[in-house]
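Box 3.1 A note on notation
Throughout this textbook, protein chains are presented in two layers. The first layer is the amino acid sequence; the second is a C-alpha cell string describing backbone geometry. Keep the layers aligned when reading.
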Amino acid sequence: YSCPACAQFEAVHSEQFRSWLESGTVTIEYHPLSFRDPQTAGQRSATRAGNAASCVADLDPDTFFDYSEALLLNQPAPPEQVGLSDDELVALANAAGVGNLDQVESCIRDERFAGWLQSATDRAMKTGPVPVRNSQIPVVRGTPTVLVNGQEYAGASPADLAAFVASVIDADAMD
C-alpha cells in the first residue's frame, strides 16, 4: 500500500475487479506486503497501511475491497509525504463505509497485524512459498504480482487482463 506501481494497476483495473466481484465471476485475494518500508522515510508506511487493510479484512470483510481501493488510490506522493497518519488511515476507513470503526481504529493504532505482515513479507519475498495455491512462482519478485489460479499475469492493458483471466478459467475448466 505504498507501492506506486500497485496504485497505477489498481487505477487501471479496479473497475473491472469490482464488476467481476459484484457479478460473482471471480474471487480476489489481496496479500499485502511491507517491503517498501525503507522507502518511506522511517514512517513504516507499507507496514502501517498493510496493517490497516488487515484490520478491515478481519473486522469488516465486506468493506475490504472499498478500503483497499481507497488505500491504493490515495497513496501519498513522495517526497512531500510518504505515508498516511493513523488518523488518515482511520478517516479513509470511515469514508469507505467500514463498520466497527472503533475496533478498526484500535487495531490500526495498535498495529495488531504488523508482525503477521512482516512474516508474510519474508515468506513471499525471501523464503517462499507464495501463499497462493498451485502458484507457478516460488517468491514475489516485483509489484504488482497478479496470479490467476496460480498463473502469473504479465500483460499491460485491461483487455490483456480480461483475456488472461478468461483463458486461465477456460483452461482450468478443461482439466
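The beta strands are 147-148, 151-152. The helical segments are 4-23, 45-59, 64-73, 86-95, 101-110, 114-127, 158-174.
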